[in-house]
Amino acid sequence: MKKSITALASLFITSSIFASEVTVTINTQNNESLPGAVVYLTPTQPSAIEAPTATAIMDQVARKFEPHILAVQKDTPVSFPNSDSIKHHVYSFSPAKVFELQLYRGSETDPVIFGKTGTVELGCNVHDWMLGYIYVVDTPYFKQSDESNVVTVDVPNGEYELKVWHPRLKDKDASQTRTINITAPAQFTVSMQQSLLPAAQDLDDEIDEFSDYE
After folding, report:
1. Which residue from 13, 54, 96, 103 could staple onto 118, CB 3.0 to 4.6 Å apart?
2. In angstroms, rounded to a whole number, what is the distance separating the alpha carbons of residues 196 and 179?
3. Tens digit of pLDDT for each residue in 151-204?
4. Phi and psi dihedrals of 196, rounded to 5?
5. pTM of the prediction?
6. Which candidate, 70, 69, 103, 66, places its Cα nearest to that of 83?
7. Domain-wise residue ranges, the chain
8. In the CATH hierarchy, which top-level class contains the domain 52-138?
9. Cβ contacts of 195 within 8 Å, gap of 6 or more
């Protein structure tokens, strides 16, 4: 019996140490760039996943959320420093996380823990144009795209569901899921079937009546 248990444990350890590099390219209509897209791979079989320990940061700079899109693993604490010289009032009514950080600046708030997967849309009660997103995934295997629409993720060999999310993707594309089996370095292309939703427009801060609010 001991030998069987030892053999199974050895097999698990041996298989878990093999990892492969997965490269994903996002193709959009009209070859538009889609920076910030969240590419994530969720194991199809239950496995031990380390809980997040680092605190992520969603800053507020020049009256905008920075970054515009932040991807985090479930149960990650997120800090919301305000690097502006004026106060902000951050809130979300999203089902994945309802919270409110009343008027503050600097680092006067405690981190917020995001314990449910999904999209969290952020706003500011003082500056209506401020819009940001936190996307919470139940996997440590995720990356966000840059201007090239390409990401590379290292994952242990095994079977995964590959998904892509971005606020500019329409429902049909946003729910696109592909099951992949990783046994060696691999490349995949995810093609969006619909045109992207309009990008958030930059608004002129100078017209804000609260621009001098302290």
Report:
1. 96
2. 24
3. 999 999 999 999 999 999 988 777 778 999 999 999 999 999 889 999 875 444
4. -75, 150
5. 0.85
6. 66
7. 19-49+140-195, 52-138
8. mainly beta
9. 29, 30, 170
